[in-house]
């Protein structure tokens, strides 16, 4: 396992943004699939021991993903992601908001801008998350967003290693 892969997480309270950069030792197309296909997303998009459960996902501009993070005790925390822009294998943008189990968003939410690039067999994912409110961003960080994101990225790194071996 590579140990020199970049992981950077910075918070800019003035701009109400979180910037995340992570490298993966995998081809861009595989990393893109991991972010855009529900059957792969559900294998890594939750900090363990939680799991991710996608109720539906329509990856197209205007489409949505409705999913829950599920605790080992069965507690569910729902979110809605609405895709606002897609440039295949280089970028997609989405609006993300917590929701109730009936798909009603709990606003405010955040705008995510995800960029993908590959160099020498490594894929870099750069994510900018703009929050509509500073209070929401601070609450997410207090709830462990940085630690949860680091765990998710580790999950993805392990999954990509496994998927790369199957090719």
From TrEMBL:
**Origin, by domain of life?**
Bacteria
Q: Which InterPro entries match?
A: ASHA1/2-like_C, START-like_dom_sf
Which Gene3D superfamilies does this chain map to? 3.30.530.20
Q: Where is the Activator of Hsp90 ATPase homologue 1/2-like C-terminal domain?
A: 26-160
Q: Where are the transmembrane segments?
A: none
| Record family assignment | Belongs to the AHA1 family.
Q: What is this protein called?
A: ATPase
Task: Give the species this sequence originates from.
Answer: Siphonobacter curvatus
